[in-house]
Amino acid sequence: xxxxxxxxxxxxxxxxxxxxxxxxxxxxxxxxxxxxxxxxxxxxxxxxxxxxxxxxxxxxxxxxxxxxxxxxxxxxxxxxxxxxxxxxxxxxxxxxxxxxxxxxxxxxxxxxxxxxxxxxxxxxxxxxxxxxxxxxxxxxxxxxxxxxxxxxxxxxxxxxxxxxxxxxxxxxxxxxxxxxxxxxxxxxxxxxxxxxxxxxxxxxxxxxxxxxxxxxxx
Length: 218
Ligand code: PRP
Description:
Elements: E1 4-9, H1 12-23, E2 40-43, E3 48-53, H2 58-63, E4 69-73, H3 74-80, E5 85-89, E6 95-101, H4 105-110, E7 116-119, H5 122-132, E8 138-141, H6 148-152, E9 157-162, H7 166-170, E10 174-182, E11 184-188, H8 190-195, H9 197-213
Parallel strand pairs: 1-3, 1-4, 7-8, 7-9
Antiparallel strand pairs: 2-3, 4-11, 5-11, 6-9, 6-10
The structure holds 1-O-pyrophosphono-5-O-phosphono-alpha-D-ribofuranose (PRP).
Residues 120, 144-147, 160-167 line the site of 1-O-pyrophosphono-5-O-phosphono-alpha-D-ribofuranose.
């Protein structure tokens, strides 16, 4: 039996995903050691390997088959646009991708003015404005703290993740339009899905079962 390799998005999502794998009997205790500098963790008995990667790299590892399975946010999947199968909504990390800005930007959006849009997700922003809204905008890529952009005058609006809405509120910004809902997803390499169909399908159905049994525990 060969190893099945799972790429997890570093951070909160990895911890939640590990808990879910534990619940279906796939444990990996050495991964819980927060001090470790190891990059790859193995469950020899069940022949599973886990590694942690930067979220935006997870779809890349899966598309190329370096990982058979990935756990990653829908935001990253939409932004990266990789060729892979999205097989399960893990219903965790739920939030929304939104167009946000000061109230004054509402009119500019409404009248399809040529505005500047700052985002960590330029592809999502482009798809939303060009393909869904048919509005020409200038998109500016940022790497974080995107809420700054409308405050300091870099852009009229941002396209960003809203979870509790606290960051927006504390900075005098609001949700102006909703782009799409987001949550964590399980993705599978297209060849792995065929070659390791039995084990991967079993894993999907086990995870689906625990999600059904305890939908709010995740
Ligand atoms: C994300 C997102 C918002 C914030 C939303 O940022 O980009 O800034 O969380 O959460 P809230 O609605 O609960 O306030 P993250 O913390 O990932 O850091 P970043 O700004 O560097 O992207």
